[in-house]
Each structure stands twice: as structure tokens, then as C-alpha cells.
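Slide 14.
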Amino acid sequence: MRQPYSFREGWHGQRSGSSGVTLVELMVAMALALAILAGVTYVYIQGKDGFRVQDNQARLQESARLVYTLLSRDLLMAGHFGCVKPTIDTNLGVSNVRITASQPIMTADTSWLETDQDQTNRSREFDPGAVIRGYDDGAGWQVPSAISTKRLPGTDTIIVVRGGDDYRHLTGPVEDEKTVKIDAPLPGVTINDRVRPMIIANCSHAEIIKPTVSRGGLEFNIGNGFNKNNANNATDVFNEQNTLRKAEYYNELSTLTTFEPVSYFVGMGTGSNGTPVPSLHRVAITQNSATPSDNGLWNDTTDVVVEGVERLQIRYLRPNRGGALETAAQISAAGAWADVSGIQIDVTVVSDDNYVRTSSTTQTIGNTSVTDSKLRLNSTFVVQLRNPRT
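Slide 15: predicted structure.
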């Protein structure tokens, strides 16, 4: 028979409910904790690095798309002068677009825009081939040194001569051979007395002019001294003999638009983290300066439109050339700018983050090798010009 429970038996016969942790157990626990912490840290770092790479890749892809969007948009507008397309009249041997403004772009010397490159004569015909001009590695760069010195060596430059996105119809014939009225203001052309470069066109002929703006952008006066057909004649704007550009040819079927040539080149800019990075610059002509003579010159400042553009190489396509790509120098030597029908653009975009890669890697950028830890993306696209130049 079981003996009754006694205090002594319970005290000596049962194990205590608590016990200590041995050194071995403590070390095993610490090792397991460290292993788990190392694993979590590794996963975190890998995830962070992966996100960093993916973020930079997405930025590069977006930058490449933006380069394509900007350049293709302007290139497709090359030679768009309202309702007229610049051409050469084979019967008269002259262009259907005249440079009436004495200072349409860059400097008072507009010879590079003319068919005969001679500003001293009375014709000053616009060269249809001038709507696209390229410069290999900046050779022949047509802007002031304040801008040209910003261009990075080894990169190409392109100039696109175009009219504005919007145009307005005239309300009637040109009054007194100098006053043009339109049915509604053009966007951004509402400040009175600003002498802006513009294009008046009747769908067969056009003039590049610099009118004085009045009535909030509804009226334009051409008899302001900034419009002349040669260096010694500032008054006979439209009515030259032996030409078709006479005031009576412009009426309510004619259009008025802004004159907006642009140029692209690669120079230094500032990245998202504040560090200097090569970037795509877009420069336009001054359109709204209070100083009348400044309107029509290339701006002294440029706009950085895409950050991280490291290389810009431009090649040109002509019909019946078997798809051969030609440099700007080759096109210039052949005098074939008017024949260019397509443009291939190679662009390299680079991250402004210096340590995207885990180690330095040698990458080929054009003909140059670069060793660093940045991420790069090469992209090539072709723009088929909307209007043939001839």
C-alpha cells in the first residue's frame, strides 16, 4: 500500500522546475542567431542592390526613350513652314522660301541658309537642304563659343530648321504691304513690340520675317527695318521685281507661324544626385527678348533636356544608296543635304550613380573604352523624315 506523501519525500524525491544554461548551449544559440542575422542582412543587401540596379536600368531606358521622343519630334517637323514645303523652283531656279528678315538666326550673316550662300544679292533664297544640318564631332558648329565650348569632344551635333507647332490664318490681304492680321493669337506670341522671327506662307511661297507684334498678338507689322531683301534696302519687303513674293499673294488662305530652329548637342549637366553628368542639350533661338535685335539669335544658355546622355552619334540615309549610312562630312562633300530622307541616331545613356556595378568593368562607348562601376545603355533608332527634301 502506497505510503502517504510526506514533505521530506517531496523535497528529496522530485527534480527542481528550473535549471541553468550551459556555455555550450549559449554558444549554439548565439551562432544560430548570428547565422539568421547574416542571412537576413544578405537578403536585405541583395534586395537593395537589386532594386538599385533595376531603378538605374529603368532610368536609363526612360532617358533613351526621351531622347528618341525629343529628337524624332523635331526631326519630323524639319522643313515644316506652315502650309508650305521648302523646295527649289526648277523653272525659275530659285527657292520658294525667302529670308526676308535681316537677322533670322544666329548672326546677321545668313549665308549658310541660302542656296548660293551669298547674302549680298537681292534674292536671299532659303536652301531647302538647310532644314537638316549635321556636324561630325562639332566640326562647323554654327553657334557662339559660349555654347560650342560646352560640347563634349567625340559627339555629334544636329541642327533642325522648322516652324512652330501652331499656325494661324490671315484675316485678309496684307495691308499697305506691311501689316499682317491673324484670326487668333499664336501661343506665346502676345507681347506687343517683340520682334519675333516668323514665317508667312501662302502654301506655294513663304517669307522668313521679323515683325513687330501688336494688339496682343493679332497684328504684325513688317515695315520695322528688320526686314529687307539685301543689305542696302530696308523698305522694299514684298514687292521686288521678277519674284513671286508680293504682298498680294498673301491673303486669308495664307498662314503665319513662328520660326523655331533648334540644335542638339552633348555637354555636361547635373545629375539627380547633384554630381556632374554628360547630358543632352537643346538650344533654340531667342524669341521673346525685349531687345529686338536679339530675337532670332541662338540663345546664350541651353536647356538640359535629358540627363546622362554620354554619346550622340548621327548618321544619314539617302534614297537609292542601298541603306548606306553616311556621316555629315560625306553628305556635305556630296552637297546632298536636300536628299537626306532618314537619320540614324546612336545614343549612350549612363547612370549618375557611380557604384551600380559591384566592381569596375570596362565598357566600349563608341570607339572609346571606359572603366568604372556605372551602368550604361546603348540605343539606336532611325527617324524617317516626313517630307522629302526635294
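Speaker note: Residues 49 and 356 are 8 Å apart (CA to CA).
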